[in-house]
Amino acid sequence: MALFGAGLNLAFCGTALVSAQLPSSDAIAQLPQSGSWEIQRTPSASTLYVPRFVQQAYKKQTRSPDGRPGKNYWQNRSTYKMSITVMPPNRTVSATEEITYFNNSPDSLSEIPFRLYLNAHRPEAIREKPIDESFLSSGIQVDEFRINGQVKAWNVSNTPATTLHMIKLDKPLPPGGSITFSIRWRYDITAAGGWKEGSIDQTTFFLAYFFPRVHPYNDTSGLDFVPFTLGREFNNDFGDYTFEVKVPKNFVVWATGDLLNPQEVLQPTYAQRLQESFTSDRVITIAQPAELQQGRVTAQSDTVTWKWQANNVADVAIALSNHYIWDAGSVVVDPKTGRRASVQSAYTEAAPDFKPMVEVGKRTLAWASTQYPGVPYPYSKTSIIFGGNPGADEEYPMMVNDQSNLDREGKPNYGFTRFVATHELLHSWFPFYMGINEKRYPFMDEGWTTAFEHLLAREDMGVENAIAFFKAFRVTTWSTPGVGNDIPIITPHDTLFGAGSYAFGDNPYGKAALGYLALKELMGDVAFKAALHEFMVRWNGKHPLPWDMFNTFNDASGQNYNWFFNNWFFSYNYLDLAVKSVQPIKGGCILQVENVGGMAMPFDVNVVYADGSKASFRQNPRIWQETPQMAIIQIKSNKTLKSLTLDGGIFMDFNPADNTWKGS
Fold first, then answer.
1. Residue range 94-105: average pLDDT?
2. What is the CATH number of domain 76-230?
3. What is the CB neighbour count within 10 angstroms for residue 284?
4. 496: confidence class by pLDDT, cuts 50, 70, 90
């Protein structure tokens, strides 16, 4: 790439994909001199918009302009101890809970916010999704509340949202201090019905977002009062969890974390099977429904208490059933140390597409641990749970809750079920390992996961099939004009209300994923992965903002990619190229490509020569850095050009009709 005259952006294509040599003097002499070839040089901005709350963080040195956590960075955390009782088919979940909250901030806190996600079931709750009457409940009912052992009133809150509850403290909690809350609470499970938690059938429950928790207080927005309205996801502090789940005998419990008492809850044969699965490459069926019904699997006291522990996680989820098939195996996730992770699945015979789930999980964790993101799976296990039909298709730390899928002929759709499970498992890194604020910046969560999903699919499905699937499932809605679908990715997601705006779905998923994949191509695989790893090292277990990510990529690579970040994440651009003109010259031709939509996208120039031979020349996104509106490409060949087509592949062109030129 070089600049000529008024800022021409030239790429030279020959037998290699892109030739770095300058054009010959003859070729330069033959460039058309008419005004139609003059391009105003308008380089993309080299600085990013930085909102005032981020500027304040720089001043306070909680965050650094180079993308690192600042020397004064802090975040609060909690420890949770819960004793939970669930007795299906009774749908009441009751529990006692002790929360110790640590104030690591420099501020004295006079009030503490509690998040009650399940209050979204209450009739008066604000919701941005349609629900039916079976979804409604009384939410979480608090029967007793104590602060440092003293009984306090719970039912007084000045918070204007049912899913947030503010507790006023008698005495402010000072910096470095801690406080203990004891809560006795209960709630009634509603039918799952396609939601992320609930009763899957009469004796199969999935518990998620189910316990009162302290809502984050952070260095950039302090107390964040955005209500939970079903459409967006979550933002939780990291914490340490110890919990026990009491259920009737013959029920199996799966949960986030490590099972602490397998010998107490399982009979010897089944405890041994579970233990063997932790080092097994093959899939072991731990228990079948008939074995559960015969009373052979669990301890046979009237109730059985399963004990769990999970440290430094943002959430926990629980599943339980008395008639699910339970499979397990394991896979090496850290080749350097040989560390393995347990992969488990639980499903009914009515969901045959879940039979391969342990193998799917093993493949996904092994690939992601070594390829993208290329960081060893950070947990000891994962469990993939059949969540009924319609189901949730949702991720949790060390847990996945997915539905079964059928194809158009009503047969099990193994491919799509695999795809969904893979996507949810890939969330283990983003958001969970990285502490992403999913409700405000889901493009840092769903976008990375969707990019990894596509890279894995290219290996497992083949490149052509992966491209076709990605275009159909992830890009089509953005490439078609819709309400708000050009809104910049950086737009806080909590300001996009409802799925009526296409940006609500496009920005976090396909649009952001394409941005990361274009960045990968721009930087090259080695530099891209090195910068990604540096970002993950810096911010693992913390709470990065988009500016921390962008600045880390610049700092780690030693390059300023702000022009690219502006183009993809801060603009109203879209994907649309056009062949402006093709001019024959000695030894080839000059192609003028207009970037109608403005996105710095890679693309192929596919040519057909008069003799029937073909060639394809890849164009890096860098071609748009200096002249974002237009690029000049020299195609070097002694053959006569018959036709030429621009092909963005997964970067779907809004108007492909103007992507082709045919010679006379």
1. 99
2. 2.60.40
3. 17
4. confident
